[in-house]
């Protein structure tokens, strides 16, 4: 095992030894949960407490990647909110010139909002309106906390929302978060922001103003409001408004310039459909803030039968 090359091999080495130690506490590797471009998520069990955790390992291939991992840690530490994923512990592992960031996170058994929606779609079912409102209210609540601190999530989508057994949504993957207001001065800065968005903001949930960034403008937290609308649409229709356009290879950048069309087959209340239309506005200046959206959701909940109005 000692001959396994570091880098990706280091991760193999950890798993084959069966345990890792963070903050002097030992965790046993159980199984792989997910894999991304430069990160891996494993299910681990605390040797002392017997609790399950999600261990996110980020391979930092250069100094910038290490700084980005450090920023992700700091973003987690900034928030203490039931709708934002907390950070249990973290460590940076340096070996043979390679660095890995280890983020120990709570394990949410039910999985992502997307996995729940996929199961509904497979069954030919749909999500009841009061459940949509409950989950959406929690998402808005977490997002409002981020915006109130002067930050934006920048990659809000159903795969970045976890659901616990009580349907409480938890926002995760804070790696794309940055300051809410980005002042763009000149075409070079505009191109830098556009390139960054192309890398970090999922295309079918990306706000229109991030596809063609103007030379002199302010990008703000209302990019998240657009993504929030896409998430609401996905909960209602069981697919994102631009998923099919992207899958067909057509231009998402072009499609997002037009108002979103709600299918005539949509069986949800006029109130919910109106809320969706008011969120998904192409011009960011005309888009509402998350506080307004939250108020509308609470109003819809109070008018909706069989809806618990207690805070999520």
From TrEMBL:
Output the Gene Ontology terms for molecular function.
ATP binding; protein serine/threonine kinase activity
Which SMART domains does the entry mention?
S_TKc
Keyword annotations from UniProtKB, A to Z: ATP-binding, Kinase, Nucleotide-binding, Serine/threonine-protein kinase, Transferase
- Give the InterPro entries listed for this entry: Kinase-like_dom_sf, Prot_kinase_dom, Ser/Thr-specific_kinases, Ser/Thr_kinase_AS
A Pfam family annotated for this chain is: Pkinase
Q: What's the domain of life for this entry? A: Eukaryota
**E.C. number:** 2.7.11.1
Ranges for domain Protein kinase come to 27-300
From the UniProt record, list the reaction(s) this protein catalyses.
Answer: L-threonyl-[protein] + ATP = O-phospho-L-threonyl-[protein] + ADP + H(+); L-seryl-[protein] + ATP = O-phospho-L-seryl-[protein] + ADP + H(+)
UniProt entry tagged with the keyword ATP-binding: yes
A cellular component annotation (GO) from this entry = Golgi apparatus
> What name goes with this protein?
non-specific serine/threonine protein kinase
Q: Which organism encodes this protein?
A: Poecilia formosa
């Amino acid at each position: 095992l000692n001959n396994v090359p570091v880098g990706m091999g280091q991760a193999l080495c950890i798993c084959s030894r069966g345990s890792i130690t963070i903050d002097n506490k030992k965790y046993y590797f159980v199984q792989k949960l997910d894999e991304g471009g430069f990160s891996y998520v494993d299910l681990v069990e605390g040797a002392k407490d017997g609790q399950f955790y999600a261990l996110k390992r980020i391979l930092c291939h250069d100094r910038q990647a290490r700084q980005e991992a450090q920023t992700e840690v700091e973003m987690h530490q900034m928030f203490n909110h039931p709708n934002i994923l907390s950070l249990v512990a973290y460590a940076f592992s340096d070996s043979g010139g390679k660095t890995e960031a280890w983020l120990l996170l709570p394990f949410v058994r039910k999985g992502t909002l997307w996995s729940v929606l996929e199961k509904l779609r497979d069954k030919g079912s749909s999500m009841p309106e009061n459940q949509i409102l409950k989950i959406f209210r929690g998402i808005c609540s977490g997002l409002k906390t981020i915006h109130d601190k002067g930050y934006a999530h920048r990659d809000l989508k159903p795969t970045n929302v976890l659901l616990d057994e009580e349907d409480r949504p938890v926002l995760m993957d804070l790696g794309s978060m940055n300051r809410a207001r980005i002042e763009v001065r000149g075409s070079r800065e505009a191109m830098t922001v556009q390139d960054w968005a192309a890398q970090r903001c999922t295309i079918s949930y990306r706000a229109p103003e991030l596809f063609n960034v103007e030379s002199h403008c302010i990008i703000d937290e209302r990019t998240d409001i657009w993504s929030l609308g896409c998430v609401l649409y996905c909960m209602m229709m069981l697919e994102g408004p631009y998923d099919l356009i992207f899958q067909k290879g057509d231009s998402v950048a072009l499609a997002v310039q037009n108002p979103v069309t709600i299918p005539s087959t949509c069986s949800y209340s006029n109130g919910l459909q109106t809320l969706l239309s008011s969120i998904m506005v192409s011009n960011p200046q005309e888009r509402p803030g998350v506080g307004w959206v939250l108020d509308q959701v609470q109003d819809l909940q109070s008018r909706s039968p069989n809806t618990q109005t207690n805070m999520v």
